[in-house]
Amino acid sequence: MPEYLSINALDRLLDDLVVGEARRRQLAMVRGELQRALDRGALPFQARRSLRRLLEEDALGPYVRLAESGTLRTRLVKGERPRTSVSTNEIRRQCLDVLRDALGLSVLQLGGGALPLQPTPQFGDLATLRRELDQNLAGSMTPGRIRLVAVLALVLDAAPRAGELVAQRLDDLAPGNTAVYVERRPQRGGGDQAGEGDWFELSPLSRAALDRWLPVRAELVQRAHGTSRLWVSLWHNHDGHPGEEGSTLNRPPGMPLEENGLITSYRRGRARYGFAGVLPPKLEQLRRAVLAEMPPVAL
């Protein structure tokens, strides 16, 4: 396979990017597609030598059209290379924006344009969500509902990302659960810096939710021989990676909750526990709504 200076530079850029595991997998997909587009001679010649030229519009336009057609797929689907899905196309465009932003380039509108973002809750809806969570805390709840209510309460107070939530540990809680520390793990360049964080005062709602979650967590963790992570799994599962004998490793309840697990629990809990009327489909949409409601920080 030919070696391209632009791809070598892209690899170095990716190594330095601070992103979550899911975004890193998506960026790896785009990196592979770009290399295959170069292999096919489908992009301008200068895109082989310069990362900036590779990420310019005259190279990305043909790349996006080729990728969306399915031509750059590595695996066949029923013997063919079908067009990539609308969601994959949007993820591809987001990744290109991340790369261009990291290189100091402006965001582009490529192909058919990005999908419109689904609306975030309005401020009144967030107040309704807080009331509904408070009502949940007043009654009997399953462990799954308890964990979701506690997660949602912390998001309403501190607006952490999914990756920031699953990284939290018990010592990120102040005595009496009066505050929580959030270490920022931004998805892309700009804004918050990786490794920086702050303490956020917790509302009575969050303190009550944590009072319900921490005893459940302690019992789960005791079965799994201990972890300091704040958010842990509720059920047996596996890591999804076959071992030498082809079997996957069983993970007991009480193991640290991974980012994908948190996102899945949000999606399922939204439907299962009757929150669909007050929660958006994605946790990130809720986070953005909370950020919009927060007062600006004085400079």
UniProtKB/TrEMBL annotation:
<keyword id="KW-0233">DNA recombination</keyword>
<dbReference type="InterPro" id="IPR013762">
    <property type="entry name" value="Integrase-like_cat_sf"/>
</dbReference>
<dbReference type="GO" id="GO:0015074">
    <property type="term" value="P:DNA integration"/>
</dbReference>
<dbReference type="GO" id="GO:0006310">
    <property type="term" value="P:DNA recombination"/>
</dbReference>
<dbReference type="GO" id="GO:0003677">
    <property type="term" value="F:DNA binding"/>
</dbReference>
<dbReference type="InterPro" id="IPR011010">
    <property type="entry name" value="DNA_brk_join_enz"/>
</dbReference>
<protein>
    <submittedName>
        <fullName>Uncharacterized protein</fullName>
    </submittedName>
</protein>
